Each structure stands twice: as C-alpha cells, then as structure tokens.
Amino acid sequence: MAVTVRFAGSGDSFGSGGRFQTCIVVDGPRSRVAIDFGASSLIALAQQGIEPNSLDAILLTHLHGDHCGGVPFLLIDAMLAARRARPLTIAGPRDLERRLGEIREALFPGSHVMTPTFPLRWIELPLGRPHEVLDLVVTAQPARHTAETNPTALRVEVGGKVIAYTGDTEWTDDVARAARGADLLIAECYFYDKPVKWHLNYPSIAAHRAELGARRIILTHMSREMLAHAADVPEECAHDGLLVTL
Ligand SMILES: [Zn+2]
Ligand SMILES: [Zn+2]
Q1: Which residues pair with 35 in a beta bridge?
Q2: Distance, CA 117 to ligand 1 centroid (Å)?
Q3: Among 43, 67, 195, 200, which residue has the least CB neighbours within 10 Å?
Q4: How far is the CA of 117 from the centre of ligand 2 (A)?
C-alpha cells in the first residue's frame, strides 16, 4: 500500500504567504500520523477535510509554538466537542509531556483539571536510536536550533518508505544522517539567501544536496523572502494541501 504525505500546513511561524504552520499528515498502511502540529493546525486540518479524531499519533520535532502549539487545542477539543474515543500517541523530544502541560495551562488556564477520556500516551524519543511508535519506526536526531526547544530532526520509517524531516535546524551531520537515502526529505528552507542562525536557508541546502542522497526533496517553512524566490529554485516547494504519494 502506498504511503501518502499531505502538507496540511507548510508555513513558517508568522503566516507568511497566508500559510498554516507546520503540520504534515502521513497515511501509512495501518495508521495516520501528523508530523508537527503548529498552533494553527486544527484550522488547517478542517480546511483539508481531515478529521482530527482520525489521527493515531502526533510526532513533534521541537517545542516551538509553530510546531507543537496546536496540541493543547487538539486535546481540549478531543475532550469536549470532538468526543474522541480513539487512542492518541504523542511522541517528541525530551520533557515533552511536562512542557506541553505548561503550554496548555498557559493557553487555557485551569485546563489542568481536565483529564482525557481516551487513551493518551506520551513517548519521549531517544536521540540517535530507532524507536517504535505504533507501526512506525522513528529516529530522532539532535538538531541545531534554539536549545530550549529540545530540537530534533526526524527519520520516519512507515510502510517500507522513509520520510525524513529536518524540523528547524542549521545544517549538521546529524541532519544528513536523518535524511540519508530517504524516499522523501522534507527540508525547512526559511530564507533564500539571508544567512540565519538556527535555520536552513537555500544556499545551505543546495550546498549539501548531493550528500543527502534523498530520492526526493520538498522545501517547506518558507519566509516571505524565500516564497518570493520559490519559482527560482529547482527543488519542489510545498504548499498547503500538497499531497505526495510515495
Ligand atoms: Zn523552531
Ligand atoms: Zn518553525
């Protein structure tokens, strides 16, 4: 069975190009997972006609709001309006459960008294080692991004395919390790030529493209500056709603 990847959200933090924050929905043979779940992700899913209760798992790269800030909204909706019964697994970086509890309480003060009526499991992904999440094998590699976000890049094996996602990061050998030989590498490409700390820009991707060895590369998380140059680069660029079959 084919594995499909849908970019429900392909934007940066700040709504550049009218895009939703990062949310990449992967359908494998036995499960549906979202890779990252930015604050706008429930809206993105609704626009794409994807029922949040259909997600079996959420994989998070790091603890910035444009990558994880939608989780409290999803959990509270699941407990109140959506009446979720399906189990949910949330996997991500170190200290995930505690930090998302703090984010939830900041966004919805008093919500700590609510407890899920559906099975909810949290998994802290070890660094550099494959880890089973449902029928997926996920390897988190350390990323070079704001340290307080516990940043990682992810390599996800599902249905015989490999999807790699840089998350937010500068170029590192660990990022290359996550991407090596992947069927699809989803690479953040924040800027076209402006050098930027803790992120990839287009020159850094172009310089390392050959050593990545990924069969296909799709750029995402583009700023206004990068979006203005998207037609100038040979790589595919994501847009909200882009559906890819591997
Ligand atoms: Zn970030
Ligand atoms: Zn980001």
Answers
A1: 24, 59
A2: 31
A3: 195
A4: 31
Ligand nearest to the CA of 151: 1
User: Ligand 2 centroid to 55 CA: how many Å?
Assistant: 22
- Ligand at minimal distance from the CA of 12 is 2
> In 139-155, which positions are buried (b, 16+ CB within 10 angstroms) versus exposed (e)?
bbbbbbbeeebbbbbbb
Amino acid at 34: A
Residue range 106-161, pLDDT digits in tens: 999 999 999 999 999 999 999 999 999 999 999 999 999 999 999 999 999 999 99
Q: 158 C-alpha to center of ligand 1: Å?
A: 25
Contact 169, 151 (CB under 8 A): yes
**Overall pTM > 0.90:** yes
Count of residues making up the chain: 246
